[in-house]
């Protein structure tokens, strides 16, 4: 296992995580549909969109240091039935337990980055520091979005620390894609959720063997729509501990294309070339074209496994 650490998270917690039969782990990069997938899975497990507690309480972020490990594990132990938890750690930093299944959502990296840019203004850094016990980390002034996005696409970073770098995003996707044949790992494209939410939800229910009554589907799908997620942000956004200034702003746009609207043609070409290079670095032999297509670079068929 690779250890991934930042001032606010530590993947080492997975070494002690008390798995049990039926657990589902949602593993995504930041702003890649994590909360969306949690809502989908938790509501299907409960058979109803009306959850007994806020989503972040039912489906906690295992690696997040703002909640003590012991309290988090104790709370999960008290849940009956199947549990759904989240992580932003790639699967090579998570224990792959045969009792669990792992769902990885992959989003167009440019759209992810635009969401990250806007999300930075919505985080209460003082509250995060208070909860995690770390010093306050104030972000320096940022350039305009187009310049920031161009710099993000070209930055060379350590992906074990800067997991939301482009290198980290590509690695997360390539690593998950290479593991999908194990039967434990299911890869879902964010764009496919946008295009056919009900179809993707039904496919996931079948793959994870979650029984859902026919009459329950309309309400489950409606509750997972972007409008519903934003409307009920107080109960669904991962800011129940006060780390978000505005929970509704967490659900900012919800459909693809934001990143490509920002870069000019030359910068977009440079970005796509770099993604292809990173895919060649991280993907298993013979899988580069599939991973590139999953990331929105190049042609390809629908990739869900």
Provide an overview of this structure.
The structure is a single chain. The protein has 305 residues and is an alpha/beta fold. It has one domain (5-294): P-loop containing nucleotide triphosphate hydrolases (Rossmann fold, 3-Layer(aba) Sandwich), CATH 3.40.50. The strands form two sheets. It has a four-stranded parallel beta sheet, with helices on both faces. Strands 1-2 form a two-stranded antiparallel ribbon. Helix 4 (109-119) packs across helix 6, helix 7 (166-179) crosses helix 13 and helix 13 (265-282) crosses helix 14. Residues 300-305 have low confidence and may be disordered. It has 14 helices and six strands. A hairpin with a 2-residue loop joins strand 1 (5-6) and strand 2 (9-10). Helices cover 42% and strands 8% of the residues.
Which key features would you list for this structure?
14 helices; Rossmann fold; alpha/beta
CA gyration radius, whole angstroms? 18 Å
Along the chain, the helix and strand elements come as EEEHHHEEHHHHEHHHHHHH
Beta strands, count:
6
Task: Determine and state the CATH class.
Answer: Alpha Beta
CATH fold-level label: Rossmann fold
Fraction of residues in helix: 40-55%
Q: What class, by secondary structure content?
A: alpha/beta
How many domains comprise the coordinates? 1
Strand order of the largest sheet: 4-3-5-6
Work out the helix count: 14
- Low-confidence runs (pLDDT<50, min 5 residues)? 300-305
Q: In percent, how much strand structure appears in the residues?
A: 5-15%
What's the story with the biggest beta sheet?
A: 4 strands, parallel
Instruction: State the end-to-end CA separation.
Output: 23 Å
Return the average pLDDT rounded to an integer: 86
Just name the CATH architecture: 3-Layer(aba) Sandwich
Shape category: globular
